Amino acid sequence: MSDAVPEPEPETEPEQADPGYEPAAPAPLGVPRDPTGNAEVDAGLARLADADHLATDGHVEVYEDVHRGLRDALTALDTRPGPPAPPSPPSPYDRRS
């Protein structure tokens, strides 16, 4: 057993960012956007192309906008009247003499 106390590690300064470093410019991801046939949905999908030309911190605004539009399109499907319900068959108790 040794009575020697270990030497403390010398403190190192945190790494400095390279002042010549520049992040890559925004570039399209090349994800295909196939038309759905629904004008509202297709407009939202086309809006996603805007993110291809923005820095990463600008993507959130585009994604939230598209999400809001898709949610509104789905909500509109619930509020549109569907085809009328077929008439119910007559009940035997509906006969009047």
Keywords:
97 residues, elongated, mainly alpha
Describe this structure in words.
The protein is mainly alpha-helical and 97 residues long. 31% of the residues lie in helices and 0% in strands. It has two helices and no strands. It has helices at 39-47, 59-79. Helix 1 (39-47) packs antiparallel against helix 2. The chain is elongated. The protein starts with 38 loop residues before the first helix and ends in an 18-residue tail after the last helix. The model has no long low-confidence stretch (mean pLDDT 80).
Q: Helix/strand/pairing class, anyone?
A: mainly alpha
User: Order of helices and strands, N to C?
Assistant: HH
Number of helices: 2
In round numbers, the mean pLDDT is 80
Q: Tell me the Rg in angstroms.
A: 32 Å
Share of residues in helices: 25-40%
State the distance separating the first and last CA atoms.
Answer: 114 Å
- Give the DSSP E fraction (strand runs of 2 or more residues): under 5%
In short:
The protein is an all-alpha fold and 97 residues long.
Give the arrangement of secondary structure elements.
Elements: H1 39-47, H2 59-79
Helix pairs in contact: 1-2
